[in-house]
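Hey all, quick one. A colleague (J.T.) asked me to put the tetrahydrodeoxyuridine job into the tracker so the inputs and the structure tokens live in one place instead of scattered across chat threads. No bug as far as I know, just bookkeeping. Sequence used:
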Amino acid sequence: MTEDLIAAARDAMSRAYAPYSGFAVGAAVRADNGEIYSGCNVENAAYPEGLCAEASAIAAMVNAGVRRLSEVCVMGKGDALVTPCGGCRQKIREFAAGATAIHVCGPEGLRKTTTLDELLPLSFGPENLK
Ligand code: THU
């Protein structure tokens, strides 16, 4: 079931624009309409302007008119787990429940599945502003 999400993240990773770090990342989200939206990291010569893969995938989902996701997959190379950065955890939080599965993958496939709540406990979200 997660294989389609993993394949989408792998495909997106192959399109990463990461000339500065050399670290390609792909991400894919399963949205509530059943569609998969993916994204890659897009770096910039003005380094802080770079975009993470998760942010790209979420932007693709929102641009398709969908605002809820149920599963996330992130893929990167190297021995260490490529978990979403702090900023991306918060970006996922905006559109997902705490129990949302986050699949952390290497090019060979799934390495670890965790949840948004595990990655971002006691989080601040849209409900706080109501
Ligand atoms: N990166 C992501 O795209 N997602 C993450 O969760 C971690 C880091 C990117 C940002 C930058 O282009 C490169 O990986 C190195 O940090």
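Adding what we noticed when we looked at it: DSSP finds four helices and five strands in the chain. The first strand starts at residue 25 and ends at 31.
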